[in-house]
TrEMBL record:
Species this chain originates from: Desulfomonile tiedjei
Principal cellular location given in the protein's record: membrane
Protein name: ABC transporter permease
Gene3D superfamilies noted in UniProt: MetI-like
Gene Ontology CC entries for this record: plasma membrane
Cellular location(s): Cell membrane
An individual GO BP term: transmembrane transport
Sorted UniProt keywords: Cell membrane, Membrane, Transmembrane, Transmembrane helix, Transport
Taxonomic lineage: Bacteria, Pseudomonadati, Thermodesulfobacteriota, Desulfomonilia, Desulfomonilales
Family of this protein: Belongs to the binding-protein-dependent transport system permease family.
InterPro entries referenced in this protein's UniProt entry, alphabetically: MetI-like, MetI-like_sf
Domain ABC transmembrane type-1: 55-239
Amino acid sequence: MKQAAYKIALPLLFLALWYSISRFGHISPLILPDPESTVRALISLIQSGDLALNTYVSLKRSMGGFLLGSFLGVASGILIGWSHFWEDFFDLAINFVRAIPKTALAPLFIVWFGLGDSAKILLIAFSSYFFTVIPTIEGVKNVDSLYVKTARSMGANEFQIMTSVIMPAAMPAIFAGLRLTVTTALIVLVMVEIVAGNDGLGYLLQEARGNLDMAIMFATLFALGVLGYCLDAAMQYLGKKLMPWRKGKTLSM
């Protein structure tokens, strides 16, 4: 009961502060809408179907890019972390490219792949790759060498060592990266949809800004927050299912 109270204390405090400022702070609704207006805007988006449609479009794009980029990131991260040769080979390229803000590459991807879904999904995949590959490399490199030596002494081959020793030991680090990546994919997508989109939650934000409809904008931001929270919760649930030996331990970063 006390833990539940702690969880809702900050949101309630934020809501009370928001209500007080919007009601008694003499701030224009064009700058800060009140909570009631935001709720009405959210209901109107739900009733019109705009929220469901644009959420579906954004979720499809972000998950497509996330799955592609994360798969490549985990696969190559295991290879790089396991081999000193591949680590030396890829280290400079990975650290150079990952320092570039991925949203800054949006215009380049649009020129290369057009204004359709391909550019958005590929940019998300590109971003997701770098958020996944580094934790995977570190997770593999930090596996206790004693485990590997013990497995080898018992006659395990390289494939058995990888699947039975390396992967389970590196899994917590990999999932920490995936938790970061799944919400980052949504952030990158919204930025791209704002720049070059004709649908999706980012486009909905851009349209609301153009119409000076702050209530719609705040309602969309709320929907994005809920979506991001649900994606993170799904990753935590999946992590607990795939890592039952960590039951009772937190996956928090």
